[in-house]
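anyone seen this seq b4? input:
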Amino acid sequence: MKYYLLAIVTLLFVTPVSVFAQITYDINIPTGAASPSAPFFWQTEKDGSTNGEITIVVGDSVKWKNGDTAAHTVTSGSDSTPDDIFDSGLFPPSKSFTHRFTEIGDYPYFCIVHPWMTGVVHVEIGFKTLPNVGASVGDGMTKADVKYQFNRLVDKAIIDENTKSITFELRGQTQSDDHTLTLILPHKLISGTYSVSVDGQKTSDFAQVTEGNVSTLTINSLKATSQKVTVTGTSVVPEFGAFASMIMVFSLITVIVLVAKRHSVLKF
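predicted toks r here
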């Protein structure tokens, strides 16, 4: 039975790791797109637009799906001239081509076989999400998504209840020369007047704007090699309260009793 207990404790206290959420957006090539007189040549599932243009965030992907009866290509370039950034080659009906965009910019594309089929992928640095920050600390029930905008990946958030701080770990290659980090911090995670440290060194080169139940923190003093940003407030996720402790203990006792009963029945 000790193995059951070990599994239960592990499930209760294991620390989740936040991952970088990447999205793939579909663009459909409709039936009849091979004709220059077709009403449209692309249909973007993101917003229903039919002009072949789509705006995404660095790290996202676009998937072109061939719903036509003819084969097509998705080739980067303009004026029917490839620029060698990406090229699907000729792909037949019901097949698809996916490309992940890792740098900001505008990426025009066209079909080599049907050059009137043109479009553009606009790649921007937008807000990404660190999900469920705070789920592994405090009362175990206070958690929230942290939105951020940065030219690199904010890998995870580590909360220190003793110092009332959240440390954000940075990694990956820079996608632009703008190293400004913007964080949208819910007050139920951290609140008050912030102080900021970059790789252990305090900085005053930041701005804090509070509105409603969130604060927007803009940090300007980062470099391409910066690895950690620590934000300290006057309060963080509430401590593990008595009520939450009682719930956990009751749950443990209930599971142990059920396991013990099952074990006794199996003996007979």
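Confidence is low (pLDDT under 50) at residues 1-20, 239-245. Residues 24-124 form a domain with the Immunoglobulin-like fold (CATH 2.60.40.420). kinda curious what u guys think
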